[in-house]
Each structure stands twice: as C-alpha cells, then as structure tokens.
Amino acid sequence: MKEPTDLKPKKTPIKAKLVWRQMSVNDIESLFRVAHLIHPGLPESDKVFAERVRLFPEGCLALVECERDKLYGYAISHPTRRRQPPALDRFLVAIASDADQYYIHDLAILPEARGRGLAQECINKLFGIAQRYPTTSLVSVYGTAPFWGRFGFVPEEIDEGLKTKLLDYGDGATYLERKNEDEQSKLN
Length: 188
Description:
There is one protein chain. By secondary structure, the protein is an alpha+beta fold. 29% of the residues lie in helices and 23% in strands. The chain has helices at 28-38, 46-55, 118-130, 145-149, 160-166, 180-187, and strands at residues 18-22, 60-65, 71-80, 101-109, 135-140, 154-155, 174-179. Strands 1-2-3-4-5-7-6 form a 7-stranded mixed beta sheet, sandwiched between helices. The longest helix is centred in the middle third of the chain and has 13 residues, at 118-130.
C-alpha cells in the first residue's frame, strides 16, 4: 500500500462517541493511515497488519466513531514465545503452538481522541485475553515506558539476540514485561 502523504494530525479533540470493536481486514487501509501518522519512523506494511488480523483477530481491535465507523486508533496483539517479540514489519506466518506469553505489538490512538480513557479501556480488554498466559510483553517506543509502567510493565534484562531485534524499533526501544497473575491478584 502506498504511504499516505496528505495526513496531518488534528489538534482539536473530537466529541463523537468512540468504541473499541474487533478489527477486520476491511479496516487495514484506515489502520495503515493511522499507523503512518503515529509511527512515521517505524513503518510496517499493510500486509503485515492484515496477517496479524487473520492470525489472531481476537487480539486486534479498532477504535471507531460509532456513527461513521471512522478509525481513530487500533491495537494489535497476539500470543508469542516468551522474550521473542516479532521483528518489526515481518510476517509471523503462524501463531506458535508453544506460545507461552501474550504480546502487545501496538496500541495507537490519534491525538484528537486521546485523554478520554480509551487506552485504559483497550488495555483492559487485552489483559482479559492475556490472562491465558503467565506474562505479557511489549516493546515500548518513543519513551512510553512510564505510561506502560502504570499497567505493571517493567523493563527486563535482555540478551544480545533481543538487543539486536530492538534496534529495528528505534532508539530508546525498551522490552517490557508484566506478570499477569500478580496484576490480577491486585485487582481482586
């Protein structure tokens, strides 16, 4: 898919009602536009996004305006092997049958839709799925580790292989994990 060139983030907050729903491959063009705005330095192909939706639709969410179904954000997540996040812009081919960790690949919300608790709502939905696994991981980019720390994610020591993989995610990329059981017991 061609990179969008006519997009600029809006600064005015929207007032429309937004909801998270399961993503479909029909959302990929809109997702690609949002991803290009939020992550211009970390491009991924529309085919990679579509593969994630096909492989694990349950973990792929779209933030949409109720009336027009316009996409304002998305989340991509799926099971993986512990401490083995996927390389950026690479196909998974399949979800590993021995996956033992949940992975949040991306959560992106356009600036005009932020500040409404929508990230928290999405993360809660993803944690509902993640409870099937002992831990959840992600790669924090753009200095977002403190944001993720509010949800129990902490930096983990990394080996050389993981360190090399993180280079694709940009300067300052940090591998984070959270223990799902510990966080669940705090909620009870």
